Amino acid sequence: MNVTLRQLRAFVAVARTGSFTLAAESLFITQSALSGLIKELEQALGLRLFDRSTRRLQLSDAGSDLVTHIEKILLDLDGVIDEVGKLKALQRGLVRVAVPQLMACTLMPGLMASFRHDHPQVQLRLVDTLVEQVINRVFAGEVDFGLGPERAPNSDIEATQLFELPFMAALPADHRLACQRALRWADLAGDPLITLQGQFTERLATDLGAARRSVTLEPANEVAFMSTALSMVAAGLGLTICIPYAAEMVQQYGLVLRPVVDPVVLRGFYIFRRRGRTLSPAAQRFHDYICEELEQHRPFARALREAQRVGSRR
Which residues make Cβ contacts (< 8 Å) with residue 303, sequence separation at least 6? Predict the structure, then answer.
């Protein structure tokens, strides 16, 4: 049985108007084309749908039984098509993004607020998590995409670099090193160092070892969240290392940031998504929006230039 939507719409139009002429006008087709569609439908179904006479056109018993069901099918289909239109026009949609806790409370809220201003009917759901869990949540399909620092390659994950930033030291404003414009890694050896758990410290230690064999990284404490590290620094328990986008949070704890040079160690930040998976229109637009905004504004570029400039003079 080969039944088309054009045939079903033609049948309903004739049933509603009781006239081939009026039905053809409502569908913007010729009366002969309409008659052809009804004939094709009757042949496909093996049923006569209308009883015709020179004076009257009315539904057959079979046509009367079918018209309500077909109207419902077309109504449901029109609803689906309307929903598709809304999704494409970003008049609705849900976007789920996984980001590390520090990025969730510094960089992301501004990007989300700006996007929501232009697309108020799109729901944005922020999933703040441990750095090590970002890619896992993307891989598991719990989120549409994730943002975070570079991690070990995964053949199922596509990574696009967003920006690259230098490490900086966070310390109390009255600390003995706070008066210096930039610090060497060796300068940090006199204070307990508080770092993040996992690959954060491992990668930093590897980068330092490759650049300066005399520089070693031996944390006194490793914590899960940067907010914990900053709180400990504010309490006088040591220093910590972070990325410039933490500046707002650093200031909230009454601390200052100083570039760490000799060497300048950079960390790349990426947007992660499942390879081969098509994002929804809303998710794709927010994905592209993040890339565009961070490319256009080059956030914290001043911190990178300053660290590189000071480092080259040392």
Answer: 165, 166, 168, 244, 257, 259
Phi, psi of 262 (to 5 degrees): 55, 60
Which of 122-131, 146-155, 293-302 has the largest mean confidence? 122-131
- Say how far apart CA 314 and CA 302 lie, in whole Å: 18
> HEC string of 109-142?
HHHHHHHHHHCCCCEEEEEEECHHHHHHHHHCCC
pLDDT of residue 302: 55
Strand partners, 160: 271
* 5 torsion bin: left (phi>0), alpha (psi -120 to 50), beta (else): alpha
Give the residue-averaged pLDDT of 95-123: 90
CB under 8 A, 24+ apart: contacts of 68-75:
70/8, 70/11, 70/12, 71/12, 73/8, 74/5, 74/8, 74/9, 74/12
Cα 102 from Cα 138, distance rounded (Å)? 18
Give the pLDDT of residue 36.
92
The per-residue pLDDT for 314 is 46
- Residue in 20, 48, 19 with CA at minimum distance from that of residue 34: 20
Q: Residue 201 has which token pair?
A: 């410290």
pTM passes above 0.85: no
Backbone phi and psi for residue 60, each to the nearest 5 degrees, phi listed first: -75, 170
